[in-house]
User: Fold these one by one.
Assistant:
Number 1:
Amino acid sequence: MSTTIRTVQFTKAQAILRAVTASNDIAAVYGPPGSGKSRAVEHFLTQDPSMHGRAWRRLQMPYRPSPKELSVRLLRDLGAPTTGTGYELSDRVTETLKGSNMVITVDEAHHLNASGLQQLRYLHDRSERSWALVLVGSDIDKVLGTAAELRSRVSGWADFTPLTGAEMIATAKQLHPALHALSNDTIRLVDKRFARGNLRDWIHFSEQVTRLAGQSAITQRHIDAALEMLTVRR
């Protein structure tokens, strides 16, 4: 799905990312899976005017990488040699990123332990804040509690939470013209039975129910069939 869903949280995240990356600081974008944080970051990197002509990289984080593995992954993404001791690799990351004005995004940052977080803080400090760092993941606010030095350097926090109330209804209706025709009560019922304010789940429902309806108006039969397909049986 390519439509940009501009929730309040999405708009706030764009403003935070714009400000933080402009000064090559550190931002944290966090929230539960499916809440829209990764889509918001991707939109900023690829669509925001402030990023036009500016280099960026997205680094996918495995579970509990060592500081050396983190450096290797960074260097690989940057197209730099990845051999050497941990100290040599850290120096090479610093040399490669210093003065680059690049935006480095670390996805699944909640997989980092204290030593990984400290490594990111060290690399950012050694480069004299000449590149921006964006941490993306679930519970980053809690994970950063294990690395006070890095937490204190985060200058922008963009949190994503489940959609509720009028914003949930408006967001669901943005997903497809056919959903716009549904009543607010129907939207609330689908949310209660399945999506529970989760943007990714609303996108899944939109895709399935419109596929089932085809060119016809969405009926309760289509809704029930889509929910049957999407609901995990216990």
Number 2:
Amino acid sequence: MKIKNLVITSATLLATLASTTPAMAANAVNGTTGTSDSDVTFTAPDKGALTLLKVSDLNFGSHPISAADETYSNENAGKVSVQDLRGSNEGWKVQVQQANEFKTSKGDLLKGAEITFNGSNAATGTTPATDAAINTGNAVDVWTAPKGSGNGVSNMDVEAGKSSLMVPGASTKLADTYTTTLNWTLLDSPANK
């Protein structure tokens, strides 16, 4: 008798569960079709949401000493990359400033030398600089992503032969290598919001 009651009780429980299962579905089922919802939520990462991934060197080559004003083109190609995972669609801009005048390892200066930067083939919706004069004064904008652009990973090419270094003829030039440091800064405030 106990086994019979247990079987009947189990069967009743299963029938009750089976009859309530359709009520748990997302939407009512009609015949052989039904609908349900699907969603996903994204949040900005805690760190690295807006990141300058890569910057480019500028190599202006080796040249004979000249007493005339000379302009030398960059001989290397490079890339600048920005990653924007903020999820705000607010845009950004990249600036460059020359840290100091070109100088030798002994500290001899190449006075008055000025870099003119030109970016190209930038990500859709972003604007690379044209003829941006980089010097030891204020930082200059070299790439801008206005509001509504620049999401994900964006790249800008620094093509060989597109940027230049002007060296005044009056500058003292030693038979040596002159270097400077370019400081690249990524800001979350585009110029044209």
Number 3:
Amino acid sequence: MEPIATRESVYGFIATEPTLKPTQNGGMRFYARFGQVPSIPVEGGGFEEGEAHFHNLAVYDRMAEIAFERFRKGDRFIAQGEIHTYTRPVEGQEVPDEEFRAARISHDSAMTDYTVSRGRSAGRESGRESGRSGPTPDGVEAEPSGPDRARTPQSVGSHATESGRTLADISAGQGAPAARGNDIPF
């Protein structure tokens, strides 16, 4: 039996507006800061949300272009890849830094409402014709698919907290008070 192939992964929310820029090698680079909110165990059971911490996220080449089309500030995601450490100049000193380089990235299906558009090859694999709607073998209602139908993710980042703050407000950071407890919109 072959071992299961695994890679490092991260999940979180896109905290800044993503950018797409060319690299020195002629490829493309998607970049955004992302946030993670840790769950902290509390006495008596359960969890409490900790303070958000932020990191760098990069995606390269064709996947960078796809990510730039699909992700916006506030979107929840899961990514597979690796941590890349490097140094960068800050005030004449080389300072260590790191980024998560995603080979694959997708919206977090537990936190995002979306519709999947299945192309012709996916329809053939499941034994159904492309463009057909109706229940799938597992009973899930399939949406019509086709080349003009795109995925339409909708982030939960627009949900407001008890105090009226949104994930986009919280992720804006820079002077904003830390989000805690019932003030976290997820």
